[in-house]
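Subject: mismatched residue count in predicted assembly?

I count 345 residues in my input, but I want to confirm that the predicted structure covers every chain. Input:
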Amino acid sequence: MYLTPFQTLVMILAVAAGTQLTRWLPFWLFPENKEPPPVVSYLGRVLPAAVMGLLVVYCLKNVTWMAAPHGIPELLAILAVVLLHRWRDNVLLSIAGGTALYMALVQLVFA
Amino acid sequence: MERLNEKPNQMTALKAAFPATIPVLTGYACLGLAYGLLMAANGYGPLWSTLMSAIGFGGSMQYVAITLLVTAFDPLQAFLLALMVNARHIFYGISMLDKYKGLGRVRPFLIYVLSDETFSLVSTLEPPEGVERKDFYFWISLLDYSYWVIATALGGLLGRFLTFDTTGLDFALTALFVVLFLEQWKKKENRPAGVIGLACAAVSLAVFGAGRLVIPAMVLILAVLLGGRKRLCT
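Triage response: the counts match. Full output below for your records.
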């Protein structure tokens, strides 16, 4: 340990405070007994789809597109997820299939 | 029978919630184990890593925080960094204002543990018939939270005995987000917003790089969604 136990505990609480502030802020600003402004309700409806797009890109942020393997394992695995999901519409199957393919690709093919 | 209808069975809710969380279990098991292991490698044993996971519960932020635990003591920097890395959670709260309305005692817990993965599940999935919304959300949230905390503890305790090659297993979370993106895509009215999210994040990644993509992407998404409100509101 680099820090003392007390310092570590303070650091943990500081990280928790920063994280929790981002989680609670909207609920504090727009309490449940009041109707939020229409623009906020609108954002509440459209944000989930937009955020899912953001999270997909976020997961791929460390892929090296310009150097080998050029994100090929990621793109192939995502393609597999999409095709499996179109075919069977089974969340677990799509995720398991895509992940298994990805593991095989990075451990055996592009290792 | 009437009494049964009045008091919904928690077991039914748990049974409905568990399958939805299996991808999260896979991803968290992997990333949580790795986190516990990494903390141990930096001199912070299972007690500290588990405490961080249980109180801090912030996924990628906890990884970032490791670098802060091995430099000079600076809690303000830790606080501000957590605020910035996790700023995307503000979007989750805005999206859940309506669904998390009137849930009573469990509501503070649901908000406390609203991670990327839990948010994707509760915002996309509907509880099956006979299961109360509140119970469905509670079990998803509690299961996801426990996976992370337990995996961290295990990683700190016995990570070094792990011999199975788990390289690539954390792709389960990427796959989860892809699938939930596709689930959102099923509704035609969600498609423009989905494309906007992908495009804004990609532009932000290209311009600002991997380390600083989230906040510019959020600003861009907000600008486009608000600018296109009249068109998207149909």
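Chain B touches chain A through 100 residues (CB under 8 Å). Marking this ticket as 'not a bug'.
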